Amino acid sequence: MSARPQTPLLDQVTLPEDLKRFSDSELTQIAHELRSETISAVSETGGHLGAGLGVVELTVALHAVFDMPRDKLIWDVGHQCYPHKILTGRRDRIRTLRQEGGLSGFTKRSESVFDPFGAAHSSTSISAALGFAVARDLGGQCDGGLGDAIAVIGDGSITAGMAYEAMNNAGHLGKRMFVVLNDNDMSIAPPVGAMSEYLSRLYAGEPFQELRSAAKGAVSLLPEPFREGAKRAKDVLKGMTVGGTLFEQLGFSYVGPIDGHDMDQLLPLLRTLRQRATGPVLLHVITKKGKGYAPAEAARDKGHATAKFDVPTGKQHKAPSNAPSYTSVFGNALVEAAAEDSRICAVTAAMPDGTGLGLFAERYPSRCFDVAIAEQHGVTFSAALAAGGMKPFCAMYSTFLQRGYDQVVHDVAIQRLPVRFAIDRAGLVGADGATHAGSFDVAFMANLPGMVVMAAADEAELKHMVATAAAYDDGPIAFRYPRGEGVGVELPERGEVLEIGKGRVVQDGSRVALLSFGTRLEETRKAAEALVARGITPTIADARFAKPLDRDMILELAANHEALITIEEGAVGGFGSHVAQLLADEGVFDGGLKYRSMVLPDTFIDQASPKAMYDVAAMNAEQIEAKVLDALGIATLDSKRA
Ligand SMILES: Cc1ncc(C[n+]2csc(CCOP(=O)(O)OP(=O)(O)O)c2C)c(N)n1
Ligand SMILES: CC(=O)[C@@H](O)[C@H](O)COP(=O)(O)O
Ligand SMILES: [Mg+2]
C-alpha cells in the first residue's frame, strides 16, 4: 500500500460549509489535495477513477459557492462522485467504496443528505434538477431545505434522449436551475455521434464566451482570452445555428466554454451565475478525464474504471483469470458468425468494450454501430435493421436494456422482428450494486408474446446460443449471460444451433429434480454433490429456454420426482413463474408435486462480491442443498438446532 498523501487543508474540511472559510488560492490547494486523496482511496478499493479526477476542481468550486445540502447538487451517473463524497462528511469511509457494507460507488439518497438524488444510470440529472426547482417554487419541502438545483452531466450522458426531454421541459418552464455540462470529450470509450462533434465545434479553436441575460457581468470577471471570445461566438452563430447554440434554442442561457480545471475561472463565474441567474443556465466546462494522474490520463478509457492499483506506477492488481469471460466468448462467437453471414451486424449503446464488441468493430466497422448512450434508439434502430433484412445483435447490459423496454415491446416484439438481444451482466454484478444488477430481464422479456428467451449455463452454451440466435429468423430472440469469467469448460470449435424450446438433462437421479436456468447450474452441481453424501442423487437439468419452455422435459421431471426446484439468477416473474404456470395449467399440483422456485429476493441487494450477494439472495450451493432437504422434509442438524 502506498503512503497516504499529505492533505493539511483538506484535513480541515468535514462538510462543504468548511470550504467557505478558505481563500480562492487555498481552495485551489484543497483541490490538489482532494485529487491526491481520491487517487489514494481508489488505489485501495478500485472503482471509477477517471471521471472523478476530471471534476475535482468543479466539485470544490460548486461546494464552495453553493449551499449544499439546501442547494441540490445532482451528479449524472454518479460515477464521478468520489471527491464529492470526501467533501460531504464521508471521508472517513471513503476507503470502503464499493465494498460490502461500505459506501456506494454512486450517489445514493439513503447514504447522505448531500446526495439528493441517487443515480448510476446516465442522463437523469437534468430531469431531477428540474423536479427540485419546480418543487421549490411550489413550496415543497425536503431534507436540508430546497434551494438551487444543479445538474452536472457529462458529454457522454448528454447524448441520451432523456437529457433533451428534460431540457425541452426546462426551457419551456423557464425555472431558475443550473446544468453544468462537463465536457471531457470522452464517454467510457471515445464519444461518438453528431452531438459530440457539435460540442467539439463549440470549443474548437479560439475559446469563446457568450453570456446571456442570466449571467451578465460575468464576462468582466473572466480572464482576457475568454472575453475576446465573442468573435468565435459570432462564428458559431453564423455558421451553425440560427440565433445561438442548441442550448439557447432550447431556452437555456449558454455560458462557456471555460476551463474546468482553472479555479480562477470557475469560482468567479459560478458566483456570478448564482447571483444573477433568473432562468435555466447551461455552463459548459471543458475538463480532462483522468486529470492529474498520468496513468489514467494515458489510458485509452482515460482511467474510467480500475482494479486496485499501485499509485506510483499505476499497475493494477488483477486476479489471474482461469477462463475467458462470457463477454469475450460472446464477442468472439459473433465475429465468427459474422464471417459466414454478411447480414450480421452489432449494436451497442456506448459500451463497445463492456459488451465485447471491440473485435467485431475492428473486423467489421461498417456493420458495428455504437449509437452512444441511447438504449431506446438502439433497440428501435435494431428493429428497423431487422425489418430491412439485416440480422442485428443488440448487445446491452441487462440493467441498461431496461431503458429500452417500450421499444422492445412496441418496435420489436409486436412487429415480430428478428432482433437478437445479447443481454450481458445478467444477474448480480458485484461492486456496482443494485443499480447495475441484471435482475429483471427474464421477467420482462419472457412475458412478451413471440419472444424467445435463453440463458447460458456456461461459456460453451453461450457459443451455442449465439449460433442459435444467428440462425433464428422467425422473430425476436434473447440470450443472457453474466459478468465475469466462464466456468472453464472446453469451448466447441463451432457453436451448435440449438432446437428452440428444448432443454437438456445433465444428470439422472431420483426424488428431486433441480431445473436450472442460467449459470446457477454450477452451484446446482455442487449442491447435488453434497446431497449425494446424504444419500440423495438429484436429477439435474439445464432449461436453456425460459420461453418457449421445454414442456415435455418439465412435465416428465414433475411426473418422475417427488420435488421439482427451479433456480435462476433473476427476480420473481421469470423462468420459475413460467414453470409454475405450466404446472398449474397442466394440473400437476393436484397430484401433490412439491414445487419450489429459487429467485432473487424481493429486495435491492447492496454491493458486495457476487458470491456474497448470492449468499444474501440465498442462491449458492449450500442454500440450494438446504432447499432440497426442506422440500423433501429432511431436517438438517442446523434446522433442528434453530
Ligand atoms: C443508461 C446508461 N447507459 C450506459 C451507462 C454506462 N456508462 C456509465 S458512465 C458512461 C459514460 C459517461 O460519459 P460522460 O457522461 O461523458 O461521463 P465521463 O465518464 O466522461 O465523465 C456510460 C456509457 C449508464 N451508466 N447508463
Ligand atoms: C458507471 C457505469 O455504469 C459503468 O462504468 C459500469 O460500472 C461498467 O460496469 P462493468 O465493469 O460491468 O463493465
Ligand atoms: Mg465525458
From TrEMBL:
Pfam families: DXP_synthase_N (PF13292), Transket_pyr (PF02779), Transketolase_C (PF02780). Its EC number is 2.2.1.7. Thiamine diphosphate binds at residues 79, 120-122, 156-157, 184, 293, 375. Mg(2+) binds at residues 155, 184. Pathway: Metabolic intermediate biosynthesis; 1-deoxy-D-xylulose 5-phosphate biosynthesis; 1-deoxy-D-xylulose 5-phosphate from D-glyceraldehyde 3-phosphate and pyruvate: step 1/1. It catalyses: D-glyceraldehyde 3-phosphate + pyruvate + H(+) = 1-deoxy-D-xylulose 5-phosphate + CO2. This is 1-deoxy-D-xylulose-5-phosphate synthase. SUPFAM superfamilies: Thiamin diphosphate-binding fold (THDP-binding) (SSF52518), TK C-terminal domain-like (SSF52922). PANTHER family: 1-D-DEOXYXYLULOSE 5-PHOSPHATE SYNTHASE-RELATED, 1-DEOXY-D-XYLULOSE-5-PHOSPHATE SYNTHASE, CHLOROPLASTIC. Its cofactor is thiamine diphosphate; Mg(2+). Catalyzes the acyloin condensation reaction between C atoms 2 and 3 of pyruvate and glyceraldehyde 3-phosphate to yield 1-deoxy-D-xylulose-5-phosphate (DXP). It comes from Shimia sagamensis. Belongs to the transketolase family. DXPS subfamily. Residues 324-489 form the Transketolase-like pyrimidine-binding domain. The lineage of its organism: Bacteria, Pseudomonadati, Pseudomonadota, Alphaproteobacteria, Rhodobacterales. Homodimer. It comes from the Bacteria.
